[in-house]
Design a protein that fits this description.
By secondary structure, the chain is an alpha/beta fold. Helix content is 30%, strand content 18%. The protein is built from 6 helices and 8 strands; from the N terminus they run βαββαββαβαβαβα.
C-alpha cells in the first residue's frame, strides 16, 4: 500500500507546526496542509504500550517543567499530561486518526529505549493487521531486522547519519528506503 502513494510524497515531520509535536492536533494540522502522510516517533512506556514521544524524557516537550522519563510512566499517566493543552498521544490513537484521515504513516522506532526488543515486539503487535499505508523507520538496523522478521508485510526504512560507512551491508537489510 505504501508504494501506491503519489510521488513525491509530502510528509509532516512529527505532524505539523502549530501544535505540540507528535500530538493528534499536529497530525490534524498536517492533514489540513494537504500532507500525504506524517512521520511520528514511538517509544514504549512503563506498561509496554507505545506512545508518541521523540525524546526519552519529557523535559524538552514540557520546556523543563517535567523531566521524568517516558519509560518510567504508564500510558494512563502520560495520557493525563497535557502539553500546551494536548495530551500525549498513543500509537493506537495515531493509527486510528491516520486511517480515518487517509494519511500514510512513517513510524520511527526510537533506539534509545530501555529494551529495544520489547519496543520492536510492541510495534509489530500493533501493526500486524493494519491495512493502511505504513512504513517503519529507525536508525537501528538490528531493530528494523527484528521488526521485519515479525511483520514482513510492513516496509522498513533505515535512517542514516552523515558519514555512515556500512551502506552496502545495511542495504541488504531489505529496506524499502534509506
Amino acid at each position: 500500500m505504501y508504494d501506491q502513494l503519489p510521488r513525491p510524497c509530502l510528509f509532516g515531520h512529527r505532524g505539523a507546526r502549530g501544535a505540540p509535536e507528535n500530538s493528534l492536533a499536529a497530525l490534524a494540522l498536517a492533514k489540513e496542509a494537504d500532507a500525504d502522510g506524517v512521520e511520528i516517533d514511538v517509544r514504549p512506556c512503563r506498561d509496554g504500550s507505545l506512545v508518541l514521544a521523540h525524546d526519552p524524557s519529557l523535559a524538552r516537550l514540557t520546556r523543563g517543567r517535567d523531566e521524568r522519563q517516558v519509560a518510567e510512566l504508564s500510558e494512563a499517566e502520560l495520557s493525563a499530561l497535557a502539553v500546551d493543552g494536548e495530551p500525549i498521544a498513543t500509537l493506537a490513537s495515531a493509527l486510528a486518526y491516520c486511517a480515518q484521515a487517509g494519511l500514510a504513516l512513517n513510524v520511527e522506532l526510537k533506539r534509545d529505549v530501555p529494551s529495544r526488543w520489547r519496543a520492536v515486539r510492541a510495534l509489530a503487535a500493533a501493526l500486524a493487521r493494519r491495512e493502511q499505508p505504513l512504513l517503519v523507520s529507525s536508525f537501528d538496523p538490528l531493530m528494523l531486522a527484528g521488526f521485519a522478521s515479525l511483520c514482513p508485510h510492513v516496509p522498513v526504512a533505515l535512517l542514516l547519519e552523515p558519514g555512515h560507512r556500512f551502506l552496502r551491508g545495511l542495504a541488504r537489510l531489505g529496506a524499502a528506503a534509506l
